[in-house]
Amino acid sequence: MKELIAKDLLKIQAVFLRPEEPFVxxxxxxxxxxxxxxxxxxDHAVRCDVENGxxxxxxxxxxxVQALMGTSTAGIAHAAITAHLMGLPMGYVRGGxxxxxxxNRIEGKLVPGQKVVVVEDLISTGxxxxxxxxxxxxxxxxxxxxxxxxxxxxxKATDRLAAANVKAVCLSDFDxxxxxxxxxxxxxxxxxxxxxxxxxxxSDESWIGGEK
Length: 212
Hints:
The protein has 7 helices and 10 strands. The protein has a 6-stranded mixed β-sheet with strand order 7-6-5-8-9-10, with helices on both faces.
């Protein structure tokens, strides 16, 4: 499944790999990869692969799940479609409380003690999705874990998830994307070690110059 989803993401350009002309993230970090999983919603075949894939990994890893909660905003559609396939209720968690009405942060019905899986499109450093987990736990949810489309596999995210005592399973990951990209000629074989060096330490820009 990891390779199927990797091929899908590359095919529809939801993932760009550009080691010779790095992207600049909002944090200022220079990155050889840019990921926009919202594009998976626009391709029917890829969307089916993603939603059926999420259903599969949720059923395998969180068999006791009672509801799905999407992250705002990118995880909402995936949570809704996957919940429909699984016959489960869903909702989503805002980035912050509304400033009007009941000032909800969690939209949709959440029953205290309910076993919930968070649906996310992308895990980078892990901060935003852990914030969602914390918000759900504060409202009494039993968060079983996270199901995401893609992860960069960064150590910072792994450490944060472990510290928050939350499991995460993903349809595909950075290493698989790099492997598939090299096999299909999307990137050069010599780029592989550079990209993995970025993954290991995004703040170290020495990968940009390539092999010396």
